[in-house]
Amino acid sequence: MNLDWSIVWQSRWLLLEGALVTVLLTVLTMLIAVPGGIVLALMRGSHFKAVALFATAFVELFRNVPLLLLIYWAFYVMPVLTGLGLSPFATGLVALCLNVSAYNSETFRSGINSIRKGQTEAGLALGMSRSEVFRQIILPQAWRRVLPVLASTWVSLFKDTSLVSVIAVGELAHTAMQIRSQSFRVLEMLTAMAAIYWLLGYPQAKIVDWIHRKYGVRE
Amino acid sequence: MTAFTRKNADKPPMLVYDKVRKNYGNFTALDGVSLHVNAGEVVCLIGPSGSGKSTLLRCTNALETIDGGEIRFEGRPLPVADADMRKVRQRMGMVFQNFELFPHKTALENVALGLTTVRKMDAGEAQRRAMALLAKVGLADKTANYPANLSGGQQQRVAIARALAMEPHVMLFDEPTSALDPETVGEVLNVMRNLADEGMTMIVVTHEMSFARRVGNWVVVFERGQLLEQGPPQQIFEAPTTERTQEFLSHLGWNG
User: Which residues in A lie closer than 8 A to residue B103 (C-beta atoms)?
Assistant: First the structure.
């Protein structure tokens, strides 16, 4: 077999740029989907039936549609429905946020529900309002409990961002695929892509393990 | 036997329960309970588990809503509006069976939280107050500890300090020693006794009969959501008028 690894080195700046877009997508998605998940979780617990129903429908829809389909949907259908002409990057971001917000909502909901009722009562008994109790007492405790799950979601998301390559977002997977199809260096580029994902993903996974050990169940 | 006069009987009572009813589905937790508490009194609520004493306490600061009758605090019915009830709650301290300290905050932060959040007091002043209160319950050296690093008795004393921080007019104790190891019960009861000596109005749901006997000014016996009997401790413990009270007390090994 005739391998030529120099293509990887020649493409280093393109690959680096792709990797940066991948990281940017992951960070932006989480920055939006973490508060989004909290809001959805609160909405699901709302006393207003319509609000709770909307949040439930949102979560169950976007959690149970394949992410790949959601990305295509955001690319082809969303502009028609909303009249918005978003860039591929923004479109990919929207799809990822819809999906990850739905997951985070369930994460936060179980975290919030795991804090026993007495904690809320202790806050109320001091004269605190429900929102003060939530911000000062419930959320900080729930946060510790959901952190390991959020960290796992992060690592999955980091890899799943590769799916937005199908709508030509110039992240790592798309960039590598482009170089592959121009250079016909299939094996080299796919291997390089795997290596880069692994090198970036492995430390994150290790950090997640550390978070699990540090913040895992403790009372 | 001379007639027993309750503390501050000449003044309007601090708390009045007027035919209070509470249902959980088909279960009647409080079946028309009428009772009053005067300023400075230590009223002990005793009776079998599930007889309604904790429910009455929880209705007092509206952690539970009542289904009938009325509760009046300092002359006024408990407000319905949430914002008004929050103001009333600041005048009622509550201590829970399971302490319910905030595990992510130190002892000092637990005590200061109500002051900074509800009273909007500045952090320094709140800390000084919290420090003084922790010293008062004998925990001056534990201010930086998290609840997980305190014994049950210490946690409950922090919880008492946390409630006292709001300068309540009445303290509600919901089985404050039931979750404690026997060796730490005494330190909590001591703090409560000191509070009583200072003239704090207290309502105490308890299974500690010796505390009710020695510290209580008025003892109320509950059964199945109703008041079986109420009176000064001497009467309840030495000459109970109902057979059920006698039975309940003898079950607890109380022989007068």
Answer: 141, 219
Q: Which chain B residues touch A142 with a CB distance below 8 Å? A: none
Closest CA to A147 of B148, B104, B102: B104
ipTM: 0.94
* Residue labelled with tokens 């501050």: B8
Picking from B57, B91, B100 by the largest number of A CB atoms within 10 A of its own CB, the best residue to mutate is B100
CA distance B48 to B249: 10
- How many Å apart are CA B169 and CA B6, to the nearest integer? 18
- B169-178 per-position pLDDT tens digit: 999 999 999 9
Structure tokens at B242: 């109902």
CB-based contact (8 Å) between A212 and chain B? Answer: no
Q: Tell whether the model's pLDDT for residue A59 goes beyond 70.
A: yes
The 3 state secondary structure assigned to chain B is CCCCCCCCCCCCCCEEEEEEEEEECCEEEEEEEEEEECCCCEEEEECCCCCCHHHHHHHHCCCCCCCEEEEEECCEECCCCHHHHHHHHCCEEEECCCCCCCCCCCHHHHHHHHHHHCCCCCHHHHHHHHHHHHHHCCCHHHCCCCHHHCCHHHHHHHHHHHHHCCCCCEEEEECCCCCCCHHHHHHHHHHHHHHHHCCCEEEEECCCHHHHHHCCCEEEEEECCEEEEEECHHHHHHCCCCHHHHHHHHHCCCCC
Checking if the pLDDT of B201 tops 80, the result is yes
Tell me: the pLDDT tens digits for A119-139?
999 999 999 999 999 999 999
Chain A partners of B117 at a C-beta cutoff of 8 Å? 126, 128, 132, 136
Facing B118 at nearest CB: one of A119, A121, A127: A127
Domains of chain A: 6-215 (1.10.3720.10)
User: Residue A1: is its pLDDT beyond 70?
Assistant: no
Q: What is the DSSP string of A73-95?
A: HHHHTHHHHH-----HHHHHHHH
| Cβ-contact A25, A172 below 8 angstroms | no
Beta-carbon neighbour count of residue A131 at 10 Å?
A: 9
- What is the model's pTM? 0.86
| SS3 category, A137 | helix
Contact A127 B98 (CB under 8 A): no
